[in-house]
Amino acid sequence: MIDPEAQDHAGVIVLPPFLYGGTFLVMLLLRWPWPWPILSGRLTLWPGIVLAALGIALAVVGRRALEAAGTNVNPLLPSTAIVTGGPYRFTRNPLYVALAMFFLGVTLAFNTWWGVVLLAPVLAVMHGGVILREERYLERKFGAPYREYCSRVRRYL
Q1: What is the pLDDT of residues 40-59, one digit of tens each?
Q2: Element (DSSP H or E) covering residue 45
Q3: Other CB atoms closer than 10 Å to residue 127's CB: what's the count?
Q4: Neighbour tally for 94: CB within 10 Å
Q5: What whole-number distance in Å separates Cα of residue 37 and Cα of residue 94?
Q6: Calpha distance 18→4 (Å, rounded)
Q7: Domain range annotation of the chain
Q8: Cα–Cα distance for residue pair 73/67, rounded to 1 Å
Q9: Does the predicted model carry a pTM greater than 0.90?
Q10: Distances (CA, A) of 25 to 16, 28, 95, 102, 143
Q11: In a designed cystine with 62, which of 13, 22, 94, 99 is the match (CB 3.0 to 4.6 A)?
C-alpha cells in the first residue's frame, strides 16, 4: 500500500534553483570561448545588477510570505496552505518570476546573448516540469479555494 503522506508533494522534475544554477554554469562555459555580447562595452552591467537585485528582493518577500503562512518553500515537501498575501496577490509564482528576473539580470551583467538563448528552454522546463505539476497538485489538494485563487491571480505577471 502506498503511503498517502509520501505522495503529498507536487512531483516536480527538478528543483528550480538547480535548474537555473546549472544553466548559469552552461552560460559561463559558452561565454568563455564565444562571448557573444549583447552590447559593446559595459552598458548592460548596471541594468543587469538592478534587475538581479529586484529578483532577489522579490524572492525574499515571496519566501517570507510562504513562511508566514506556515507552508513549505521546497516543492518536494507538502504544501499546507494557499498563500494569497504579499506578492502572491499579483502572481501565483513570485519565486519563479524572481529566479527568471535574477537570471536575466545576471545575463545582462555578464553581457552575453547565451543567457537569453538558454533562458527559453529553462522557462519551458519550468512551465511544464514544475509549475503545471504544482498547479495540478494544489488543485487536487485544495480544490475549489485554489481554483478561485487561480481565477483572480495570474500565473506569471
Answers
A1: 888 999 999 999 999 999 99
A2: helix 45-68
A3: 15
A4: 24
A5: 29
A6: 27
A7: 13-152
A8: 7
A9: yes
A10: 14, 5, 20, 14, 39
A11: 94
